[in-house]
Design brief:
By secondary structure, the protein is mostly helical. It folds into two domains: about 55 residues, Arc Repressor Mutant, subunit A (Orthogonal Bundle); about 120 residues, Tetracycline Repressor, domain 2. Helix 4 packs parallel to helix 7 and helix 7 packs across helix 8. The radius of gyration is 18 Å and the shape is elongated. The N and C termini lie far apart (about 45 Å). Pfam families: TetR_C_13, TetR_N. InterPro entries: Homeodomain-like_sf, HTH_TetR, Tet_transcr_reg_TetR-rel_C_sf, TetR_C.
Length: about 190
């Protein structure tokens, strides 16, 4: 099996470290030490910590558990299953970490154009996926055809990100239960 490149090791480590501790708490030195690579090698692959941060958001968005699908589910069941997977990850981490994309939006959007841009791209792609699932559920007769799928897809993602913040603050299931009840039983049900 080929050995991972130094760049890959840095990115993979940074995803884990930043997700666990936050962007500000992770210095280049902290990340390279955790990755087991010389600090100088960081600058062979990234111009700055901000560039790494944008790559971390991109990587997280493309490789998250969200993309895992369960065969045989209807479009609405598939959408609910994906949110259930993300919920279970949060609960399994004892209501810590949450969504790295949302965390980076909260922490860096006001301070880093490159990270803000990647966060916006990632959130846009994610809400587009939710919109597509809602449209498929509408075509299957699971969701009312009169609902604006585009607006609803954006709303569901926005509600999810807020739900994660509240669940992390409260350290309990209430916000998560509210999300699933309102989104899947009331709005989409």
């Amino acid at each position: 099996m080929p050995r991972a490149s130094v760049r890959e090791v840095i990115v993979e480590t940074a995803v884990q470290e930043i997700h666990k501790y936050g962007f500000a708490a992770c210095s280049v030195d902290t990340i390279t030490k955790a990755a087991g690579v010389p600090k100088g090698s960081f600058y062979n692959h990234f111009k700055s910590k901000e560039d790494l941060g944008a790559e971390v958001v991109r990587r997280y968005a493309t490789e998250s558990e969200w993309h895992r699908s369960t065969p045989g589910l209807s479009p609405l069941e598939q959408l609910k299953a994906r949110f259930t997977t993300m919920r279970d990850l949060l609960v399994g981490n004892e209501f810590t970490r949450g969504c790295l994309i949302g965390n980076m939006a909260a922490e860096r959007a006001d301070h880093s154009g490159i990270i803000r841009t990647q966060v916006a791209i990632s959130l846009g792609a994610w809400s587009d996926g939710i919109v597509q699932a809602i449209k498929e559920a509408q075509a299957a007769g699971e969701v009312g055809a009169g609902l604006d799928a585009d607006r609803l897809g954006r709303f569901v993602l926005n509600a999810w990100e807020g739900t994660l913040l509240r669940a992390k603050a409260d350290k309990n299931m209430q916000a998560l239960d509210d999300f699933f009840t309102v989104v899947f039983d009331t709005i989409l049900g």
